[in-house]
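TASK: fixed-backbone design
INPUT:
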């Protein structure tokens, strides 16, 4: 049936991206509202209660660590997520290149595999394009004096599943709550027709 926000019981946000871009720091900065100098490889899964989220929906935030998790665990988390935040570091061009050479193709391939091999309708992937909403997150904006948004807008032209992009800093907390809000919004109010063909039930 028609998708509406009120049917969504929770929003599950997964952060992926190259090692060292600041995924764990972003999550811990959001939770503690201060920058953690020392972070573990992977943050525990956290649940933000509905009443403190802008969209009033309980929100699970899930970290990924290539040290602690293998490819199968990553694929399972991609399939469980409602939105994937691909994080890069704005001062690290390699991490930006890897959005198109690695992460976007990986999310697409994981979603289409699960659609092919799993007919129980349990996948959160979009049926028409075999993917799910993406938010591109440029972290460490405190380190540079320019913007990477031009490169990111070029990527967005080629990948319609990218709902939004944001530059932020786990260190200064700049745009941290906005980043998680954009991720919620990508699920609850997608702007591209990701869900139109999909029967959520
Ligand atoms: P893996 O767990 O190895 O995949 O890395 P990660 O993406 O979780 O990165 P992590 O949060 O461990 O941060 C990596 C390094 O970047 C740490 O030394 C952080 O302190 C630093 N860092 C994270 N966010 C920021 C930021 O916004 N600004 C600056 N200047 N440094 C940051
Ligand atoms: Mg980490």
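OUTPUT:
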């Amino acid at each position: 049936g028609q998708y509406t926000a009120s049917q969504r019981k929770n929003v599950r946000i997964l952060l992926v991206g190259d090692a060292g871009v600041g995924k764990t720091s972003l999550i811990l900065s959001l939770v503690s509202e201060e920058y953690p100098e020392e972070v573990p490889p992977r943050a525990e899964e956290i649940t933000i209660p509905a009443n403190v989220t802008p969209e009033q929906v309980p929100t699970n935030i899930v970290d990924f660590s290539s040290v602690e998790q293998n490819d199968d665990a990553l694929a399972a988390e991609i399939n469980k997520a409602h939105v994937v935040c691909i994080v890069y570091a704005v001062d690290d061009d390699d991490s930006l290149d890897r959005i198109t050479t690695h992460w976007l193709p990986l999310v697409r391939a994981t979603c289409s595999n699960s659609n092919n091999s799993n007919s129980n309708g349990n996948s959160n992937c979009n049926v028409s394009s075999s993917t799910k909403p993406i938010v591109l997150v440029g972290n460490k904006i405190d380190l540079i004096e320019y913007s990477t948004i031009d490169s990111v807008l070029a990527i967005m032209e080629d990948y319609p599943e990218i709902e939004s992009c944001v530059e932020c800093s786990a260190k200064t907390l700049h745009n941290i709550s906005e980043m998680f809000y954009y991720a919620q919004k990508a699920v609850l109010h997608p702007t591209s027709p990701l869900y139109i063909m999909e029967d959520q039930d």
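COMMENT: Confidence is low (pLDDT under 50) at residues 194-198.
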